[in-house]
Amino acid sequence: MACMITTAEEYGFSARGGVNWSTYVAVRPVYPPSFFKRIYAYHGAKPQAAWSQAHDVGAGAGIVSAELAGKFDRVVMSDPNDGYAALGHKILVDELGIPAAKVVFLQEGAEKSSVAPGSVDVVTACMMIHWTDTSAAVDEFHRQLKAGGTVVITYYSRLRSEPSVPSSARTRRRLVRLARFTTGG
């Protein structure tokens, strides 16, 4: 599969407009190997677990995508911001040597993706959920997941302390529904 870069609306962290990823990566907490080991153990314990495709939503420069590429046959790396698909390609393919055929680069938001329904084994949303319409993003993750798939959402502080993340009953119901879908319950 060829590298695919799509375009979408620019949201505010333009790589072309001056975001310096080397500074960001230097100060951002690192995901330790135990983080990925826990995800893989949880997902792998499911009877229908597959390792075909992961979708790293809000991927930025591809910090999580790079790790997922070592475990999954294919990784979709998406971010709504201008230039990140090209930056991700530069880092993952040109610098890290991940085969271009293994990664699809999309410029699109979490709330509406071009990824096919029921095609994703694991969705990761690391340090990005607060930038989304949370309910719409959770619905979109559900649409993309295969039955028994896994959703990983990380956030550095408690959700209820962040005013931009809605803690509405509607969002909680959608998260519970998604949890039941991914666990088969």
Automatic annotation (TrEMBL):
Give the source's domain of life in one word. Answer: Eukaryota
Task: List, alphabetically, the Pfam families matched.
Answer: Methyltransf_11
- A GO molecular-function annotation: S-adenosylmethionine-dependent methyltransferase activity
Domain called Methyltransferase type: residue spans: 56-153
Q: What is this protein called?
A: Methyltransferase type 11 domain-containing protein
The protein's organism comes out as Xylaria bambusicola
**Family named by the database record:** Belongs to the methyltransferase superfamily.
Name the UniProt key words of this record, in alphabetical order: Methyltransferase, Transferase
Gene3D superfamilies membership: Vaccinia Virus protein VP39
Which InterPro entries does UniProt cross-reference here? Diverse_substrate_MTase (IPR051052), Methyltransf_11 (IPR013216), SAM-dependent_MTases_sf (IPR029063)
A Gene Ontology BP annotation from the UniProt entry: methylation
